[in-house]
Design a protein that fits this description.
single chain, about 230 residues, mainly alpha, 8 helices
Length: about 230
């Protein structure tokens, strides 16, 4: 519950995707041939913010994009695979894994686009007092990262009360967490970097299993658009 004192990267494909429910986790999703957890969430949140309409933080988002770590796999990771007759084999392995990583990035950006479209339709339902509360808290330089995640959690709990119960809970939580980040950055663009990193940390702590399963399901499904749902 909110404190009472505060009450008064360019998408790679346009093919829409459906966001299915989470199910049993595939352990292969975290192996070396795929993106690391933090990169998955970085790309998802960044893609969401990039695809939101009517945002006031284009300059800040562009600067953030330049500073984000590139999800790549160093060639030295494959040194042990070099063959005595040359390095052709290891290069083939590297190229295959780079292709898998690129395909996964495209899927993540498609998911981010779909969630952003849903978020755009629900944007007006976020109470201004919740946005003001979060912006004020994120401007407090004395707050720890844990305190900021607690503030985001409190705001998320508040706005979850206003959303339909027939929507999948984890999907709603994921979309609203990123929508709250967008609203705070719209309110005060200079807060974008801080709210971005807190949002990524919050998702990694609370929704990572859902995100990974969502990604696995999209990879293995013949999907259609969920933007109208």
């Amino acid at each position: 519950m909110l404190p009472s004192r505060l009450l008064p990267w360019t998408p790679a494909s346009q093919k829409p995707v459906e966001l299915p429910a989470a199910c049993a986790m595939d352990p292969k999703i975290s192996n070396g041939a795929r993106l690391q957890h933090e990169h998955i969430t970085d790309l998802l949140v960044f893609g969401f913010l990039q695809n939101c309409c009517n945002s006031n933080f284009h300059k800040e988002l562009k600067a953030l994009g330049h500073d984000l770590p590139v999800p790549a796999y160093p060639r030295e990771d494959y040194d042990d695979e070099l063959q005595t007759d040359g390095n052709r084999c290891s290069h083939i392995v590297l190229e295959r894994e780079e292709t898998e990583s690129e395909n996964q990035e495209e899927i993540i950006q498609n998911i981010a686009r779909q969630l952003a479209q849903i978020g755009d339709r629900m944007d007006s339902r976020i109470p201004p007092r919740v946005v003001n509360y979060l912006a004020m808290e994120f401007m407090n330089v004395d707050l720890s990262e844990e305190d900021r995640k607690d503030c985001l959690s409190a705001a998320l709990e508040e706005v979850m009360k206003t959303y339909p119960k027939d929507m999948e809970r984890e999907k709603t939580m994921l979309m609203l967490t990123m929508l709250l980040a967008k609203k705070v950055a719209d309110h005060t663009p200079s807060l974008l970097r801080g709210v971005f990193h807190t949002t990524v940390n919050f998702i990694n702590q609370n929704l990572l299993t859902y995100v990974r399963n969502l990604l696995r399901n999209v990879r293995t499904s013949d999907v259609s658009s969920l933007a109208s749902h």
